Amino acid sequence: MRETSSKTNTMLNYSFLIVLGFIMVYPLIWLFASSFKTNADIFGSSKLLPTTYVWDSYALGWQGTGQYGFQDFFINTLILVVPTVIFTIISSVIVAYGFARFEFPLKTMLFSVMIATLMLPNASIMIPRYILFNKMNWLDTYLPFIIPAAFATGAFFVYMMIQFLRGLPRDLDEAATIDGCNSFTVLSRVLLPLCKPAIFSVGIFQFMWTWNDFFNSIIYISSVKKFTVSLGLRLSLDASSAVSWNQVLAMSVVSIVPCILLFFFAQKYFVEGISTTGLKG
Protein backbone atom coordinates (compact mmCIF):
# COMPACT_ATOMS: atom_id res chain seq x y z
CA MET A 1 0.00 0.00 0.00
CA ARG A 2 2.78 2.39 0.94
CA GLU A 3 4.68 1.50 -2.25
CA THR A 4 1.62 2.29 -4.39
CA SER A 5 1.11 5.59 -2.58
CA SER A 6 4.77 6.48 -3.05
CA LYS A 7 4.62 5.73 -6.79
CA THR A 8 1.47 7.84 -7.11
CA ASN A 9 3.11 10.78 -5.34
CA THR A 10 6.17 10.45 -7.55
CA MET A 11 4.05 10.46 -10.70
CA LEU A 12 2.12 13.49 -9.50
CA ASN A 13 5.34 15.34 -8.69
CA TYR A 14 6.84 14.57 -12.09
CA SER A 15 3.60 15.54 -13.84
CA PHE A 16 3.53 18.84 -12.00
CA LEU A 17 7.18 19.55 -12.85
CA ILE A 18 6.61 18.68 -16.52
CA VAL A 19 3.61 21.03 -16.76
CA LEU A 20 5.46 23.80 -14.91
CA GLY A 21 8.54 23.32 -17.08
CA PHE A 22 6.46 23.50 -20.26
CA ILE A 23 4.84 26.74 -19.09
CA MET A 24 8.26 28.25 -18.45
CA VAL A 25 9.74 27.07 -21.76
CA TYR A 26 6.67 27.90 -23.89
CA PRO A 27 7.73 31.53 -24.59
CA LEU A 28 10.99 30.24 -26.07
CA ILE A 29 9.09 27.67 -28.15
CA TRP A 30 6.75 30.39 -29.39
CA LEU A 31 9.71 32.65 -30.17
CA PHE A 32 11.37 29.98 -32.28
CA ALA A 33 8.14 28.98 -34.06
CA SER A 34 7.20 32.62 -34.77
CA SER A 35 10.54 33.25 -36.45
CA PHE A 36 9.14 31.22 -39.38
CA LYS A 37 5.81 33.08 -39.51
CA THR A 38 4.64 36.00 -41.56
CA ASN A 39 3.54 39.22 -39.87
CA ALA A 40 -0.07 38.25 -40.48
CA ASP A 41 0.42 34.91 -38.71
CA ILE A 42 2.25 36.49 -35.76
CA PHE A 43 -0.42 39.11 -35.04
CA GLY A 44 -3.49 37.45 -36.52
CA SER A 45 -3.34 33.91 -35.17
CA SER A 46 -2.81 32.30 -31.77
CA LYS A 47 -1.61 29.03 -33.29
CA LEU A 48 1.86 27.90 -32.33
CA LEU A 49 2.79 26.54 -35.76
CA PRO A 50 2.76 28.94 -38.73
CA THR A 51 0.20 28.70 -41.49
CA THR A 52 2.76 29.81 -44.07
CA TYR A 53 6.43 29.07 -43.42
CA VAL A 54 9.06 31.73 -44.08
CA TRP A 55 12.40 29.96 -44.49
CA ASP A 56 14.71 32.90 -45.18
CA SER A 57 14.09 34.90 -41.99
CA TYR A 58 17.38 33.82 -40.40
CA ALA A 59 19.46 34.53 -43.50
CA LEU A 60 17.89 37.95 -44.11
CA GLY A 61 18.00 38.86 -40.45
CA TRP A 62 21.68 37.95 -40.22
CA GLN A 63 22.47 40.20 -43.20
CA GLY A 64 20.88 43.18 -41.48
CA THR A 65 19.22 46.16 -43.09
CA GLY A 66 22.06 48.64 -43.41
CA GLN A 67 25.83 48.85 -43.60
CA TYR A 68 26.31 46.53 -40.64
CA GLY A 69 24.96 43.01 -40.23
CA PHE A 70 24.38 40.95 -37.12
CA GLN A 71 27.79 39.32 -37.44
CA ASP A 72 29.25 42.77 -36.66
CA PHE A 73 27.00 43.15 -33.63
CA PHE A 74 27.99 39.70 -32.39
CA ILE A 75 31.68 40.49 -32.73
CA ASN A 76 31.19 43.79 -30.91
CA THR A 77 29.33 42.04 -28.10
CA LEU A 78 32.10 39.48 -27.69
CA ILE A 79 34.71 42.25 -27.63
CA LEU A 80 32.71 43.87 -24.84
CA VAL A 81 31.65 40.80 -22.87
CA VAL A 82 34.78 38.62 -22.80
CA PRO A 83 37.17 41.16 -21.17
CA THR A 84 34.41 42.25 -18.79
CA VAL A 85 33.85 38.68 -17.61
CA ILE A 86 37.58 37.93 -17.27
CA PHE A 87 38.31 41.11 -15.30
CA THR A 88 35.25 40.58 -13.12
CA ILE A 89 36.40 37.09 -12.16
CA ILE A 90 40.00 38.14 -11.45
CA SER A 91 39.14 41.23 -9.43
CA SER A 92 36.32 39.55 -7.50
CA VAL A 93 38.55 36.63 -6.50
CA ILE A 94 41.37 38.89 -5.31
CA VAL A 95 39.12 41.20 -3.28
CA ALA A 96 37.13 38.29 -1.83
CA TYR A 97 40.37 36.54 -0.84
CA GLY A 98 41.42 39.63 1.10
CA PHE A 99 38.11 39.89 2.94
CA ALA A 100 37.81 36.17 3.63
CA ARG A 101 41.35 35.35 4.74
CA PHE A 102 43.08 38.49 6.07
CA GLU A 103 42.63 40.92 8.94
CA PHE A 104 43.36 44.58 8.24
CA PRO A 105 42.30 48.00 9.57
CA LEU A 106 38.74 49.13 8.74
CA LYS A 107 37.89 45.70 7.34
CA THR A 108 34.40 45.71 8.86
CA MET A 109 33.65 49.23 7.65
CA LEU A 110 34.90 48.53 4.13
CA PHE A 111 32.88 45.32 3.97
CA SER A 112 29.79 47.21 5.14
CA VAL A 113 30.32 49.88 2.49
CA MET A 114 30.66 47.19 -0.17
CA ILE A 115 27.43 45.51 0.94
CA ALA A 116 25.69 48.88 1.09
CA THR A 117 26.37 49.40 -2.62
CA LEU A 118 24.08 46.44 -3.29
CA MET A 119 21.20 48.49 -1.86
CA LEU A 120 22.06 51.56 -3.95
CA PRO A 121 19.54 52.17 -6.77
CA ASN A 122 21.15 52.24 -10.18
CA ALA A 123 19.22 55.39 -11.08
CA SER A 124 20.96 57.35 -8.33
CA ILE A 125 24.44 56.76 -9.79
CA MET A 126 23.55 56.84 -13.48
CA ILE A 127 24.07 60.59 -14.02
CA PRO A 128 27.28 60.94 -11.90
CA ARG A 129 28.74 57.91 -13.62
CA TYR A 130 27.88 59.30 -17.05
CA ILE A 131 29.49 62.66 -16.20
CA LEU A 132 32.61 60.89 -14.93
CA PHE A 133 32.97 58.73 -18.03
CA ASN A 134 32.33 61.77 -20.24
CA LYS A 135 35.16 63.71 -18.57
CA MET A 136 37.44 60.71 -19.05
CA ASN A 137 36.50 60.54 -22.78
CA TRP A 138 35.21 57.00 -22.38
CA LEU A 139 31.85 57.54 -24.07
CA ASP A 140 31.20 55.59 -27.27
CA THR A 141 33.76 53.00 -26.17
CA TYR A 142 33.59 49.77 -24.21
CA LEU A 143 35.77 51.15 -21.38
CA PRO A 144 32.78 52.03 -19.10
CA PHE A 145 32.08 48.29 -18.96
CA ILE A 146 35.60 46.82 -18.94
CA ILE A 147 37.58 49.15 -16.64
CA PRO A 148 35.14 49.13 -13.68
CA ALA A 149 35.05 45.32 -13.91
CA ALA A 150 38.82 45.28 -13.32
CA PHE A 151 38.35 47.02 -9.96
CA ALA A 152 35.74 44.67 -8.45
CA THR A 153 32.81 47.09 -8.70
CA GLY A 154 30.38 44.17 -8.77
CA ALA A 155 29.68 43.82 -5.04
CA PHE A 156 27.34 40.89 -5.68
CA PHE A 157 30.14 38.83 -7.23
CA VAL A 158 32.62 39.78 -4.51
CA TYR A 159 30.14 38.75 -1.83
CA MET A 160 29.49 35.46 -3.61
CA MET A 161 33.20 34.67 -3.70
CA ILE A 162 33.64 35.70 -0.04
CA GLN A 163 30.92 33.31 1.06
CA PHE A 164 32.45 30.49 -0.93
CA LEU A 165 35.97 31.12 0.41
CA ARG A 166 34.61 31.21 3.96
CA GLY A 167 33.34 27.69 3.41
CA LEU A 168 36.85 26.40 2.65
CA PRO A 169 38.82 25.23 5.74
CA ARG A 170 41.65 27.48 6.86
CA ASP A 171 43.67 24.33 7.49
CA LEU A 172 44.38 24.27 3.76
CA ASP A 173 46.04 27.69 3.99
CA GLU A 174 48.07 26.69 7.02
CA ALA A 175 49.25 23.44 5.43
CA ALA A 176 50.29 25.28 2.27
CA THR A 177 52.11 27.94 4.32
CA ILE A 178 54.04 25.23 6.18
CA ASP A 179 55.06 23.83 2.78
CA GLY A 180 56.54 27.21 1.89
CA CYS A 181 53.69 28.85 -0.03
CA ASN A 182 53.13 32.59 0.22
CA SER A 183 49.71 34.28 0.10
CA PHE A 184 49.59 34.45 -3.69
CA THR A 185 50.62 30.82 -4.08
CA VAL A 186 48.01 29.72 -1.56
CA LEU A 187 45.37 31.49 -3.63
CA SER A 188 46.56 30.35 -7.04
CA ARG A 189 47.50 26.73 -6.27
CA VAL A 190 45.28 25.74 -3.36
CA LEU A 191 42.11 27.85 -3.25
CA LEU A 192 41.46 28.65 -6.91
CA PRO A 193 41.01 24.99 -7.99
CA LEU A 194 38.48 24.58 -5.17
CA CYS A 195 36.70 27.82 -6.15
CA LYS A 196 35.88 26.57 -9.63
CA PRO A 197 32.10 26.31 -8.98
CA ALA A 198 31.92 29.87 -7.64
CA ILE A 199 34.10 31.19 -10.45
CA PHE A 200 31.83 29.57 -13.04
CA SER A 201 28.81 31.09 -11.31
CA VAL A 202 30.36 34.57 -11.41
CA GLY A 203 31.33 34.12 -15.06
CA ILE A 204 27.88 32.91 -16.12
CA PHE A 205 26.05 35.68 -14.28
CA GLN A 206 28.31 38.41 -15.65
CA PHE A 207 28.24 36.98 -19.17
CA MET A 208 24.45 36.82 -19.25
CA TRP A 209 23.93 40.25 -17.68
CA THR A 210 26.46 41.99 -19.92
CA TRP A 211 25.36 40.15 -23.07
CA ASN A 212 21.70 41.11 -22.51
CA ASP A 213 22.38 44.62 -21.21
CA PHE A 214 20.45 47.19 -23.21
CA PHE A 215 20.13 50.13 -20.83
CA ASN A 216 23.83 50.81 -20.20
CA SER A 217 24.75 50.03 -23.80
CA ILE A 218 22.37 52.61 -25.20
CA ILE A 219 23.69 55.21 -22.73
CA TYR A 220 27.40 54.79 -23.40
CA ILE A 221 27.51 53.58 -27.02
CA SER A 222 26.32 55.86 -29.81
CA SER A 223 28.09 54.65 -32.98
CA VAL A 224 26.25 52.03 -34.98
CA LYS A 225 29.52 50.29 -35.84
CA LYS A 226 30.02 49.63 -32.10
CA PHE A 227 26.47 48.46 -31.37
CA THR A 228 25.98 45.26 -29.38
CA VAL A 229 23.42 42.57 -30.13
CA SER A 230 20.75 44.15 -27.94
CA LEU A 231 21.17 47.50 -29.70
CA GLY A 232 21.28 45.76 -33.08
CA LEU A 233 17.88 44.21 -32.40
CA ARG A 234 16.48 47.62 -31.53
CA LEU A 235 18.08 49.10 -34.65
CA SER A 236 16.30 46.55 -36.83
CA LEU A 237 12.98 47.97 -35.60
CA ASP A 238 13.93 51.52 -36.58
CA ALA A 239 15.49 50.68 -39.96
CA SER A 240 12.24 50.62 -41.91
CA SER A 241 8.61 51.54 -41.49
CA ALA A 242 7.43 47.99 -42.23
CA VAL A 243 9.09 45.73 -39.67
CA SER A 244 9.71 42.12 -40.70
CA TRP A 245 9.00 40.63 -37.29
CA ASN A 246 10.06 37.14 -38.32
CA GLN A 247 13.59 38.45 -38.90
CA VAL A 248 13.58 40.28 -35.58
CA LEU A 249 12.41 37.14 -33.78
CA ALA A 250 14.94 35.03 -35.68
CA MET A 251 17.80 37.26 -34.51
CA SER A 252 16.33 37.18 -31.01
CA VAL A 253 16.61 33.40 -31.09
CA VAL A 254 20.20 33.62 -32.32
CA SER A 255 21.09 36.19 -29.65
CA ILE A 256 20.02 33.97 -26.75
CA VAL A 257 21.81 30.87 -28.05
CA PRO A 258 25.23 31.77 -26.51
CA CYS A 259 23.69 32.27 -23.06
CA ILE A 260 21.76 29.00 -23.28
CA LEU A 261 24.79 27.03 -24.46
CA LEU A 262 27.02 28.53 -21.79
CA PHE A 263 24.52 27.69 -19.07
CA PHE A 264 24.01 24.09 -20.17
CA PHE A 265 27.74 23.41 -20.57
CA ALA A 266 28.54 24.89 -17.16
CA GLN A 267 25.35 24.10 -15.25
CA LYS A 268 27.08 21.49 -13.06
CA TYR A 269 29.50 24.07 -11.66
CA PHE A 270 26.82 26.77 -11.64
CA VAL A 271 24.41 24.78 -9.46
CA GLU A 272 27.22 23.69 -7.16
CA GLY A 273 28.48 27.24 -6.82
CA ILE A 274 25.06 28.66 -5.99
CA SER A 275 24.32 25.89 -3.47
CA THR A 276 27.59 26.29 -1.58
CA THR A 277 28.07 30.09 -1.43
CA GLY A 278 25.90 30.28 1.66
CA LEU A 279 28.17 28.00 3.71
CA LYS A 280 30.53 29.40 6.30
CA GLY A 281 33.72 27.91 7.64
From TrEMBL:
Transmembrane segments: 12-33, 73-97, 109-131, 143-162, 242-265
Compartmental location: Cell membrane
InterPro entries: MetI-like, MetI-like_sf
Residue stretches making up the ABC transmembrane type-1 domain: 74-266
Pfam families per the UniProt record, alphabetical: BPD_transp_1
Highest taxon of the lineage: Bacteria
Keywords, comma-separated and alphabetical: Cell membrane, Membrane, Transmembrane, Transmembrane helix, Transport
Membrane topology: Multi-pass membrane protein
Family indicated by similarity: Belongs to the binding-protein-dependent transport system permease family.
Xref: PANTHER family: ABC TRANSPORTER PERMEASE PROTEIN MG189-RELATED-RELATED, ABC TRANSPORTER PERMEASE PROTEIN YESQ-RELATED
Protein name: Sugar ABC transporter permease
Biological source species: Paenibacillus woosongensis
